[in-house]
Every structure is written in structure tokens, then in C-alpha cells.
Amino acid sequence: MRFVTLIILAGVAAAQAPAPPTADSGRHGSISGVVTDAGTGAPIADAKITVRTNVRYSGDTMIGSPQSKVVNAVSDSAGHYKLDDLPAGLYGVMLQMPPPAILFKSKRVTLRAGEDLSTVAFQVPQKGTVSGRVLDQNKEPIAGVSLYLLLPE
After folding, report:
1. Residue 132 has pLDDT above 90, yes or no
2. Alpha-carbon distance 47 to 149, whole Å?
């Protein structure tokens, strides 16, 4: 008797849980926000913001499909951007700073059907300088090495 009761309760709980967003949910939505300098709060223009539709994620790996589409926006003089006409789903919103900076940041967000998600903001760290020498295990200099600094979000 307890077994039957548990199945009924699990069925009721599952029926009350909201369905995850899918690309076929009908109404499209948008993702928008602002790009600013983390130190001064000043808006940053010309930053490229990108998402890919109809993808799925396995850990940190994005897996595309034949239906995947790239949607881009560029931040305006006030730092604002908007990505329109997006189906519901999980998105990796990617920021690429304009040249000469080489900076990429990303955030994962869930967009529901018809939602206008307007709070996806990026704060870009101030520029700095890194100097030093790259040495091998024998403390000998290594020539021609490229270094990349990664920023955790």
C-alpha cells in the first residue's frame, strides 16, 4: 500500500513542476543588458555579444545541431545590447571586447518562452600590464611563448 501511495505522490509532484524551456515553446524572447568598465562603471561601446540557438550543453561543452544559428549584437555608446527573436532554452551569452583587447567572457542563462531577459550585464576589468620571464624547469628563458590570462566569472 505504501508503494502505491509513493507513486501517486511522485506523479503529482512531477505534474506540478514547470516544464523546462524548449526551442518549440512557440513565443520567442530576447536577452539584453549592459557592458561596463568594472573599475569606473563607464559604458563600453562596440563589444560583441553572441549566442547560439538550438544547442545543448554537456558540462562546459556546447554541442550544436544543424538547426543552430548564431545571433550577434554590438553594444551601443551607452553599453547596451539586445539579442532578439530567441527561442526558449539555455544560452551561453558570450562577450568579446573590441580590438585591441582580446577578452572573452560568458554567462549561462535560461530564457523562457516569450521572456525579455534584460539583466545579463558584463563588467569588464580594467586594462593592466603583465611582465616577467617564462622559464623552463632548468630556469632557462623560453623564447616565443604566448601567455593568456583567464578571468573567472
Report:
1. no
2. 19
